[in-house]
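User: quick one, fold this
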Amino acid sequence: QVQLVESGGGLVQPGGSLTLSCAASGFTFSITTMRWYRQAPGKERELVASITSTGGDTTYSDSVKGRFTISRVNAKNTVYLQMNSLKPEDTAVYYCFALRYSGYWGQGTQVTVSS
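Assistant:
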């Protein structure tokens, strides 16, 4: 069965950094576009970053552009989200998403940015 397991979330001070990981299994990762979404309390889920199957093309929301970097290692079936210069408004549950068939979601990992 398909599994997407996120890790790396936690509590960080403003200006700090975190790297999220998403380990995938149960589908052909190397031909799948992968995305990171986030959902803050009381807000809709929003697309944060996307990466094509080869990693050759990445896109970001305006709110994270220049601070976050999405990457992948197909040999490890893993996609990453490097988050720098974190702000309190980045606080959210971050979800990994596989753009395959109807789409697959991970369970999410909490990121809290607070002093």
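User: anything notable?
Assistant: The chain has a mean pLDDT of 97.
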